[in-house]
């Protein structure tokens, strides 16, 4: 079952894709992908460790998921070797800044190891320009990983699949079907283009589990390519829902959520008491609620100190009254704003 589901999703990404793992969340998938990138560049690291290899550099959007930093620390690469790439007003990675920072690290003696792009950033729902990023990655012989934990399930929608164009050029992709598709938590997948690298990197061949003289096909023993030993059978959740809804059911689900987000954005634009933070790219709709004295003003952000207090107060009031749990957050220099995303629509 696990092999079948993984192969089917790989087929949806591209013809060259053929392996993957079910993961306890997208963070784990991102960290595993970084480890695979290092193993591909330095296969001896599996046995000899990392003392003999040069400093490696990871490049990710300034709006990337924090797990990139956590796993850089966990893997011994170090948080200081994760280089933040500037984003535009839409939240998309600026490729010229990526190229510049890669060149800077090469001059300083580092090995550019991996670029982490994002399809559906946590706050704005931005999609990085993957084809341009893939060109840069290829130029510098870097592993390209896409954190599509939030946005990757658009792969089921014919209407919105184009947002993922270029996904097949990556080396690895994380998709959390427990997010957009509402599969029960936890259900996350790390998909890999190289069909043999997972086993090469992680296998240990424990004889009490993976005997060579079993009476059945050993390809059913997928456990040796996992870092985990005991794990939950997450594939059941996805398989049962896929069987019940079908691919067309998933597509309808995704399209309906995108339609709702479009409607909500239209309503924000129609009302003087609200202001969009940036144009919607995905389900995330980011907005400010404006107090009366700020409505209609052209210089709203000059009142950032006052505006910063509004969203937390609204959230606290709504939670205490049991009406709705609406998220909020600051971003770069922007004051706190509210955000409609999967938490509300699902």
From TrEMBL:
It comes from the Eukaryota. SUPFAM superfamilies: PLP-dependent transferases. Its cofactor is pyridoxal 5'-phosphate. Keywords: Decarboxylase, Lyase, Pyridoxal phosphate. One of its GO terms (molecular function) is pyridoxal phosphate binding. Pfam families: Pyridoxal_deC (PF00282). InterPro entries: PyrdxlP-dep_de-COase, PyrdxlP-dep_Trfase, PyrdxlP-dep_Trfase_major, PyrdxlP-dep_Trfase_small. The modification N6-(pyridoxal phosphate)lysine is found at residue 179. GO terms for cellular component: cytoplasm. GO terms for biological process: carboxylic acid metabolic process. Belongs to the group II decarboxylase family. This is Cysteine sulfinic acid decarboxylase. It comes from Anoplophora glabripennis.
